[in-house]
């Protein structure tokens, strides 16, 4: 194997008594809108809700979120999870970021998402996001690929088993269990079409919970990968050529779509989505559509970035209706356009704005 497993000596220390104190790791999205940061606070009780945890701050000039002369950025706790690394009473705490004047930072896309989800709450919007990602070695080469060359062409890797077919399963197993332990609504995992590419799904989640759970699942993935000396990339097209890219297919339904006769509502939603294709493409990667240009080529199970298409069971369409939903006459739709590195707060916000008719 190309990558060496990092041997950790921390285990025995983590068995030491923590004397009734609790470690709460505050986690946030930094100024890139893609990377995450964290730091830990000792608390003298076990918080049961985010509101039990104090607002905190950090040096925003070191994360691309403030200038050095006015560097304090506030952390507002929003979602609390069990810490699968420190275990015990310890927590992972997702936070929103605010400037000194209480305005959200440029990469705090949660605030506006939450307001929209609040407006749409009667429709009970549900999401399930399929997070695809790729494992890289620390030298920037895909994990397990022959150095200076390529593995056999795609075909045998998707959902595969066996040495030479599947790369890095230990990382996926560790992440899956860590997410279950943390309380993330992780729905499943599978090996992807490109070797060393994987997927996990989070959902169904209602409203703002989708972004909260997916971001924390991403954090846990990066943290698990540290223990294996492997790098996680969410780049939507990590390897050029005849290799699949990585998306964040977004499955969506409202209560009306899930009830009998829901298929009509699914087609109405598709009709609305078809009219604002460009607006959605702009929201579906962190570079306003530029990152997805490399991925949405009309090949490798994608639709061309410039054209909106839909179809039942059609994996070359922008939006797919799962075969089972078409047969049941109800269910959900799958928007296949979001890139793997999209911000789920942004994606879920625009979907709800369009489908539930809250102006953009
Ligand atoms: P695919 O066949 O595209 O690979 P997956 O099985 O990977 O689909 O993912 C499907 C996702 O859809 C899961 O995250 C699941 O939680 C989610 N999902 C299931 N039902 C609904 C629903 N009614 N509304 C929204 N999302 C849903
Ligand atoms: Mn999937
Ligand atoms: Mn997939
Ligand atoms: Mn899918």
Task: Describe, in plain words, how this protein is organized in 3D.
This protein has 360 residues and is of the alpha+beta class. It has 2 domains: 7-108, Glutamine synthetase, N-terminal domain (Ubiquitin-like (UB roll), Roll); 117-355, Creatine Kinase, Chain A, domain 2. It contains 10 helices and 13 strands. The termini are far apart. One manganese (II) ion is lined by residues 130, 199.
Compute the average pLDDT.
96
Q: Identify the overall geometry.
A: globular
Number of domains: 2
What order do the SSEs take from the amino end to the carboxyl end, as H and E? HEEEEEHEHEEHEEHHHHEEHEH
What would you call the structural class? alpha+beta
**The CATH C-level class name of the largest domain:** Alpha Beta
Count of helix runs? 10
Q: What does the largest sheet look like? A: 8 strands, mixed
Q: How far do the termini sit from each other?
A: 49 Å
Annotated CATH homologous superfamily of the largest domain: Glutamine synthetase/guanido kinase, catalytic domain
Bound molecules: adenosine-5'-diphosphate, manganese (II) ion
Question: What would the CATH topology of the largest domain be?
Answer: Creatine Kinase, Chain A, domain 2
Determine the strand fraction and express it as a percent band. 15-25%
Number of strands: 13
Q: What value does the Rg take, in angstroms?
A: 21 Å
Uncertain runs are none
Helix content range = 25-40%
CATH architecture verdict of the largest domain: 2-Layer Sandwich
């Amino acid at each position: 194997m190309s990558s060496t497993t990092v041997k950790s000596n921390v285990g025995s220390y983590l068995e030491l008594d923590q004397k009734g104190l609790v470690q709460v790791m505050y986690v946030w999205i930094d100024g890139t809108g893609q990377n995450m940061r964290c730091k830990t606070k000792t608390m003298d009780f076990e918080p049961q809700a985010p509101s039990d945890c104090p607002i905190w701050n950090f040096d925003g000039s070191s994360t691309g979120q403030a200038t050095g002369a006015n560097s304090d950025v506030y952390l507002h706790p929003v979602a609390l999870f069990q810490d699968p690394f420190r275990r015990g009473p310890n927590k992972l705490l997702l936070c929103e970021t605010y400037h000194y004047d209480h305005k959200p930072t440029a990469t705090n896309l949660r605030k506006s998402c939450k307001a929209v989800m609040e407006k749409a709450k009667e429709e009970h919007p549900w999401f399930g996001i399929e997070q695809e990602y790729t494992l890289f070695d620390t030298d920037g080469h895909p994990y397990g690929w022959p150095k200076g060359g390529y593995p056999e062409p795609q075909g045998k890797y998707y959902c595969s088993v066996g040495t030479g077919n599947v790369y890095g399963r230990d990382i996926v197993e560790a992440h899956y269990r860590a997410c279950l332990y943390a309380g993330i609504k992780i729905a499943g995992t599978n090996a992807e079409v490109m070797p060393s590419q994987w997927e996990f799904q989070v959902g169904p989640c209602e409203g703002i919970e989708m972004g909260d759970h997916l971001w924390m699942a991403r954090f846990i993935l990066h943290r698990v990968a540290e223990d294996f000396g492997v790098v996680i990339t969410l780049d939507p097209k990590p390897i050029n050529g005849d290799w699949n890219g990585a998306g964040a297919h977004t499955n969506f339904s409202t209560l009306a779509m899930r009830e009998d006769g829901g298929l009509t509502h699914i087609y109405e939603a598709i009709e609305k989505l078809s009219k604002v294709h460009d607006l959605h493409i702009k929201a579906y990667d962190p570079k306003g559509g530029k990152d997805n240009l490399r991925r949405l080529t009309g090949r490798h199970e994608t639709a061309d970035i410039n054209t909106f298409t839909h179809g039942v069971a059609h994996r070359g369409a922008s939006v797919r209706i799962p075969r089972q939903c078409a047969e049941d006459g109800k269910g959900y739709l799958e928007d296949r356009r979001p890139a793997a590195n999209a911000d789920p707060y942004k994606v879920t916000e625009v979907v709800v704005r369009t489908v539930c008719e809250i102006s953009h």
